[in-house]
């Protein structure tokens, strides 16, 4: 429920958004409160609280409280949102793989191919491509750099906030910054992106819709996953981000044509002597 509220936040009315923000900030208190208490805390009317519940697909306040309470009790805190401590290994394997497959299918169904084409066009013309991410997103950025440098493109990945700021100050209109973030709300990353945009550098964002990072992007590649990374380790979102990076890398390779095959052959040849027969 919390992930659903966050996802629909931007589409709510101003009054309903106050209720949503209260629920996100104090979910444990909300499940113990009456509709009147919530209306008072959110500084809205009781009918507004009911409208918010219906916007979330609930029949009313009692139904919303039940669903919110259930979502707070699901999973093992800081481990995974779907698994339970008593799950056998067979159930654990099924849940982990099913969640991953479902997230990737949802991302595939929601992909905006015009945005993908626009991103590939920017990357194709770039003098230099920089990948920024923090934490788990920093790992995705490093993976992206590992894929793109083999195309004989000047690429680098930065996961340090100070380095990102310094590097962003040197970017210009002929470069491309790819910013990766599940939440799209990390202050330090947003600061680096703003600096790059101020210098005229186009920004491709791999992040959630309606996030601050998505608003700054020249091209947005939506990565909306129902995963609360405020509590649980990012798993599903990381897989979606990695897949979107693969999509960009393959799209660029196809646009470049036969010369890419020759470049990749060289890199493979350089490693052959390192493998045992």
Give me the secondary-structure topology.
Blueprint: H1 2-8, H2 14-25, H3 27-30, H4 35-42, H5 46-55, H6 61-73, H7 89-110, H8 113-125, E1 128-132, H9 136-148, E2 154-158, H10 161-168, E3 176-180, H11 187-198, E4 203-207, H12 212-216, E5 219-222, H13 236-256, H14 258-272
Parallel strand pairs: 1-2, 1-3, 3-4, 4-5
Helix pairs in contact: 2-4, 2-5, 4-5, 7-13, 8-13, 9-13, 10-11
Largest sheet, strands/sense/barrel: 5 strands, parallel
| Helical stretch tally | 14
Query: Can you count the beta strands?
Result: 5
Content-based structural category: alpha/beta
Low-confidence stretches: 75-81
Strand order of the largest sheet: 2-1-3-4-5
End-to-end Cα distance, whole Å, is: 53 Å
User: Overall 3D geometry?
Assistant: globular
Q: Please give the share of residues in helix.
A: 55-70%
Spell out the helices and strands N to C. Answer: HHHHHHHHEHEHEHEHEHH
Q: Could you characterize the architecture of this molecule?
A:
With 277 residues, the chain is α/β, with parallel strands linked by helices. It has 14 helices and five strands. A five-stranded parallel β-sheet has the order 2-1-3-4-5, sandwiched between helices. Helix 11 links the parallel strand 3 and strand 4.
């Amino acid at each position: 429920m919390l992930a659903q509220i966050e996802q629909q936040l931007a589409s709510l009315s101003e009054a309903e958004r106050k209720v949503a923000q209260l629920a996100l900030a104090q979910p444990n208190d909300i499940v113990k409160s009456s509709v009147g208490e919530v209306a008072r805390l959110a500084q809205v009317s009781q009918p507004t609280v009911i409208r918010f519940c219906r916007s979330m697909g609930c029949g009313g306040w009692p139904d919303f409280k039940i669903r919110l309470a259930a979502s707070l009790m699901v999973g093992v805190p800081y481990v995974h949102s779907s698994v339970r401590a008593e799950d056998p290994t067979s159930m654990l394997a099924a849940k982990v793989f099913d969640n991953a497959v479902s997230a990737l299918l949802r991302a595939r169904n929601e992909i905006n191919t015009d945005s993908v084409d626009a991103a590939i066009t920017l990357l194709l013309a770039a003098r230099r491509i920089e990948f920024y991410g923090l934490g788990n997103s920093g790992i995705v950025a490093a993976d992206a750099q590992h894929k793109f440098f083999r195309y004989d493109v000047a690429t680098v990945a930065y996961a340090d906030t100070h380095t990102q700021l310094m590097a962003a100050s040197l970017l210009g209109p002929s470069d491309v910054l790819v910013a990766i973030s599940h939440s799209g709300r990390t202050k330090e990353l947003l600061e680096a992106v703003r600096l790059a945009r101020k210098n005229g550098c186009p920004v491709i964002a791999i992040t959630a819709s309606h996030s601050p990072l998505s608003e700054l992007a020249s091209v947005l590649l939506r990565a909306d996953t129902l995963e609360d990374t405020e509590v649980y380790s990012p798993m599903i979102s990381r897989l979606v981000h990695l897949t979107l990076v693969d999509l960009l890398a393959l799209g660029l390779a196809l646009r470049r044509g036969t010369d890419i095959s020759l470049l990749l052959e060289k890199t493979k040849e350089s490693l052959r002597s390192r493998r045992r027969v």
